[in-house]
Design the sequence.
């Protein structure tokens, strides 16, 4: 791992939270994601299971976390399963975790090898009444995709068919939506690295640079600050490409007079960050660009002001959408007649804002959390309104990461340039050297 050690207290606290939700005499089993093949004998870069990370901090294949708080064996209330180190394998793939190393990361003292865990599990299953098995229940998941997580579920239930089974994902959705202070500290580190990368590219961008060169500058800054990787595919969209929400080609020249929308975030300690800024390639907004940018910034600030514990995501979205409609009228994009004659299921403003305003963020950039119930303190959201104007070949989005507190929120990106004046001043400083 590139990042510095994360205190095991983070994962210990998460396990305590999950255990409190378990039924009496139950066992919860969380297997890691499998390694997947690409072509020939090659495999994809390993992508660990987010719930296993949340519970243990371990990112190695064949890992498993087993929780059995009522286990008669006092030494096996928490068990961590690891791939047994193999000298020949390590010659090819490098170091694999030893038991003491895994305990230091996770805080779990009982560590077993994967090739001998069946006997341990069988004893647990003979004693337990209820079993929690895990699956991917993210609301954004495409259920048409191959579901490797269900392979373990089906095989385990076939092996032990007479137990009561529960969905661990229901508990995970509730718990992972609310971050502990330890988690927010790690997210803040990811945010700070992303902030540094934005400062770097503001010094770099000028007419004639290629979008992929900007991506390279961001990647350089991420790695030199111990980020694991990009938290998601980097979006560097100049000119009309900014209207494509997930534009990742990043292969065009940045031209004088264009805006460039940059949506990127570092992953640090397995936690994501998510930033979007839209800046002028030449360092100076035109009058119209400034007008639209300030309208989006007003929406951004308004959204932050109402995103507090107690408001539902539905009500929050309705209020921001109503403000967006007014902004579109003020900018001359739609008229009151358009609003009067609009299809309620497809309001006129949706031509210019066709995505959601916020999403949960944590281990996954689109993290688990409620989309219907009132939001709570401890949740971390993005706030990312935008306006995309086909007629003007312009797309502007402004995004920060917000941690909700009991009294309001904390903007984790506080201090990063966001106003027209701040952005222009930073880019002017680069040109003048002052």
Sequence:
């Amino acid at each position: 791992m590139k990042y510095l050690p994360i205190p095991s207290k983070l994962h210990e606290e998460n396990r305590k939270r999950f255990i409190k939700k378990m039924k009496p005499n139950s066992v919860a089993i969380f297997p890691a994601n499998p390694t997947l093949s690409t072509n020939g004998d090659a495999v994809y870069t390993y992508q660990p299971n987010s719930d296993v990370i949340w519970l243990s901090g371990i990112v190695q294949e064949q890992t498993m976390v087993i929780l059995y708080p009522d286990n008669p064996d006092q030494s096996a209330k928490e068990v961590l399963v690891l791939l047994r180190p193999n000298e020949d394998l390590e010659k090819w793939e490098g170091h694999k975790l030893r038991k003491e190393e895994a305990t230091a990361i996770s805080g779990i003292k009982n560590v077993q090898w994967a090739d001998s865990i069946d006997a341990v599990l069988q004893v647990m299953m003979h004693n337990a009444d209820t079993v929690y098995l895990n699956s991917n229940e993210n609301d954004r998941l495409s259920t048409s995709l191959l579901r490797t997580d269900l392979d373990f579920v089906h095989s385990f239930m076939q092996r032990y068919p007479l137990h009561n089974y529960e969905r661990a994902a229901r508990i995970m959705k509730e718990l992972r939506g609310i971050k502990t202070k330890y988690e927010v500290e790690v997210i803040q580190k990811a945010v700070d690295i992303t902030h540094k990368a934005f400062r770097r590219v503001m010094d770099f961008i000028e007419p004639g640079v290629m979008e992929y060169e900007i991506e390279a500058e961001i990647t350089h800054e991420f790695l030199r600050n111990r980020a694991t990787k990009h938290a998601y595919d980097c979006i560097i969209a100049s000119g009309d490409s900014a209207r494509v929400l997930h534009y990742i080609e990043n292969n065009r020249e940045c031209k004088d007079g264009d805006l460039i929308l940059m949506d990127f975030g570092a992953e640090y300690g397995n936690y994501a960050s998510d930033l979007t800024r839209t800046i002028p390639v030449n360092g100076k907004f035109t009058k119209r660009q400034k007008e639209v940018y300030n309208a989006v910034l007003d929406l951004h600030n308004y959204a932050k002001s109402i995103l507090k514990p107690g408001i539902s995501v539905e009500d929050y979205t309705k209020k921001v959408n109503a403000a967006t409609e007014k902004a579109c009228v003020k900018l001359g994009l739609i008229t009151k007649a358009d609003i009067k004659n609009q299809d309620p299921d497809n309001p006129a403003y949706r031509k210019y804002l066709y995505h959601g305003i916020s999403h949960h963020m944590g281990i996954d950039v689109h993290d688990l959390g409620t989309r219907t119930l009132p939001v709570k303190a401890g949740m971390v959201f993005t706030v990312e309104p935008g306006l995309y104007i086909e007629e003007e070949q312009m797309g502007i989005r402004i995004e920060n990461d917000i941690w909700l507190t009991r009294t309001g929120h904390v903007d984790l990106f506080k201090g990063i340039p966001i106003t027209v004046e701040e952005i222009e001043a930073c880019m002017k400083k680069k040109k003048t050297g002052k």
